[in-house]
Amino acid sequence: MSRSPRRIIIDTDPGQDDAIAILVAVASREVEVDAITTVAGNVPQPLVTDNALSLLALAGRQDIRVYRGCERPLLRPLYTAEYVHGPSGVDGADLPDPTVGVHSTHAVDLIVDTCLASDDGMVTLCPLGPLTNIAMAIAKEPAIVPKIAEILWMGGAFDEPGNTTEVAEFNAYVDPHAAHVVFTSGVPLTIFPLDVTHKALMFPRHVEALADHATPVADAAAGMIRFYEKYDIDKYEIEGAPMHDPCVIAYCIDPTLFSGTPHHVLVDTTHEETIGNTYIDDSAGEANATVITDVDAERFFDLVVQRIGSL
Ligand code: RIB
Ligand code: CA
């Protein structure tokens, strides 16, 4: 008997890899996307919100509502990544104009209201960008903490070098203070750092398999990946594009694709040259996160290509 779908809220800064994650999620019966909340990150607001709306129009899922979130990190100025994603944030595809607009409720209030209306341990939050909205929700209403089953976050880097500075991954670098709030909140947390997402490299054969579906969604996805991969291929001299954010959604669909270990994780919020560095110190306290380090890449890409091809 199939399990009931895992209900999730995707918090996102689209971003081509966020876009792939969203498409996989809406194509998969194992998850039910209750809402999409947007956060400034790869590109500023309102672009991340516009991109989320357009992606749902592309997928034919404008029944899923989009809620605009924070415009900037908690303390630091906003740092964006047009150098990776292009000025639109989703360069490589010509996405349709949405016919449904952003919901009038702020993303932080949507997260708080959804949690307070739920039984304990029933809400799964899937942040795919800086943790600003999540931290703001926890700060605004600490009573949401027991309502959250798990936070599944793409971010951080541990044994892997950073992709924004030598030591910091982008989502942690943009809002390290928000990461600190989440790491110290007591919410069950599973982290998908560069240590695992750099093993989820989408090679040309995967992109061709996606494009072979020859549907508007597959064409848009292949176009976004072909744009997005340029930065990492040049930076790391590899031939594949890291599918960072889709790892979170794939875990919701099939956790057996991944493996990791519980650790006590921290983030540097004070030293300018290492700010955003996430690190493990198991002598500093009980485990506060499961750090995912391995993925079955071929099964992962079979899932990504098949699900997007089904839209
Ligand atoms: O470091 C990769 C992460 O930063 C991904 O979530 C990407 O979309 C950007 O937000
Ligand atoms: Ca992202």
Write the layout of secondary structure elements.
Blueprint: E1 6-12, H1 16-26, E2 31-38, H2 47-59, E3 66-68, H3 82-85, H4 107-116, E4 123-127, H5 132-140, E5 148-154, H6 170-174, H7 176-183, E6 189-192, H8 194-197, E7 201-202, H9 204-211, H10 216-236, E8 241-242, H11 246-253, E9 258-263, E10 265-267, E11 278-280, E12 289-295, H12 297-309
Parallel strand pairs: 1-2, 1-4, 2-3, 4-5, 5-6, 6-12
Antiparallel strand pairs: 7-8, 9-12, 10-11
Helix pairs in contact: 1-2, 1-10, 1-11, 1-12, 4-5, 5-7, 9-10, 9-12
The structure holds alpha-D-ribofuranose and calcium ion.
Compact description:
This protein is α/β, with parallel strands linked by helices and 311 residues long. It is built from twelve helices and twelve strands. Strand 2 (31-38), helix 2 (47-59) and strand 3 (66-68) form a beta-alpha-beta unit.
Outline the structure in words:
The chain is of the alpha/beta class. It contains 12 helices and 12 strands. The protein has an 8-stranded mixed sheet with strand order 3-2-1-4-5-6-12-9, sandwiched between helices. Strands 7-8 form a two-stranded antiparallel ribbon. A two-stranded antiparallel sheet has the order 10-11. α1 runs parallel beside α2 and α4 (about 105-115) crosses α5. It starts with 5 loop residues before the first strand and ends with a helix. The relative contact order is 0.16. The protein binds alpha-D-ribofuranose and calcium ion (CA). The site of alpha-D-ribofuranose has 15 residues, from α1 and α6.
